[in-house]
Design a protein that fits this description.
With 259 residues, the chain is of the alpha+beta class. The chain is 44% helix and 17% strand.
Length: 259
């Protein structure tokens, strides 16, 4: 039975869910304001010639991350308390938690792999730039790793504790690589939750990303299979300006416009 049908319109749990939506909107607004403060602080845009973040900026950034984590915990606690009220709200709570996991907004744990990547300590065989680049971990290497993990069924991925979502960008900016707008440097720690054997097999495909590193310097990576790993939730901006949800296409008479 669909819990959103009009048959439940006058049930008590409807008012609880309405209140939940209002509170979630308030928490989301607070999260967006927190991330905006991070961006204004300037610590998410380190470029060539720009000094790295100061100690005070890093402390402030940590405080803002703690605030986001606290808001997320309050939201999850509220969902849990609502779910104990009745079966309809419990079903809604379970669906919302699934959405949070798929969107990368909540911490998750489970079996998977941890891949460590670092620049080679060997001296390139020549001074040619083409040869030297092979001994350095680039943003394209991280992107290839992420693509292989996604194709192998990874359900959650993080790089140096930055949770990857649909809007995550991995790009080189000066001497650093930015993930979710946060600059990171080697060594890189890539975590992925899924079937460990399948994930490891995908990374070790012939002519794949690890095969290329192995041909250059096997010490540039270390792959470990783990029975349980923890991946944090995404703590960045979740605001959308242009994309709007489609509530009911049949009611509006609008479908996919291929013209």
């Amino acid at each position: 039975m669909n819990i959103f049908t009009t048959g439940f319109r006058h049930q008590p749990w409807v008012w609880q869910v309405t209140g939940l939506c209002f509170i979630l909107g308030t928490l989301l607004a607070g999260s967006i304001q927190t991330v905006s403060s991070i961006n204004r602080s300037g610590i998410a845009a380190v470029r060539v010639g720009v000094p790295p973040p100061t100690a005070s900026q890093l402390i402030e950034f940590k405080k803002l991350q703690d605030q986001i984590a606290e808001l997320t915990k309050k939201k999850n606690d509220l969902l849990t308390s609502i779910a104990s009220g009745n079966n309809q709200a419990k079903t809604l709570d379970e669906e919302l938690q699934k959405v949070d996991i798929l969107a990368g907004l909540t911490p998750v744990h489970g079996p998977g792999i941890i891949l460590y990547l670092q620049d080679s300590k060997k001296t390139p065989p020549s001074n040619r730039l083409f040869d030297a680049d092979k001994y350095i971990i680039h943003d394209v290497d991280l992107q290839q790793v992420v693509n292989e993990l996604g194709a192998s069924g990874a359900e959650a991925i993080s790089i140096n504790n930055q949770r990857l979502i649909a809007r995550t960008a991995i790009r080189c900016v000066g001497p650093t690589i930015q993930v979710n707008g946060i600059p990171i440097v080697p060594p890189f720690e890539v975590k992925a939750i899924g079937d460990p054997n399948t994930l490891a097999g995908g990374l070790n495909l012939p002519l794949g990303v690890l095969d290329g590193l192995r041909r250059c310097d096997p010490d540039m990576y270390k792959l470990e299979e783990k029975p349980d790993i923890l991946i944090p939730g995404y703590a960045g901006n979740t605001q959308t300006r242009y994309a709007k949800p489609v509530i009911d296409q049949s009611a509006t008479g609008k479908g996919n416009d291929n013209s």
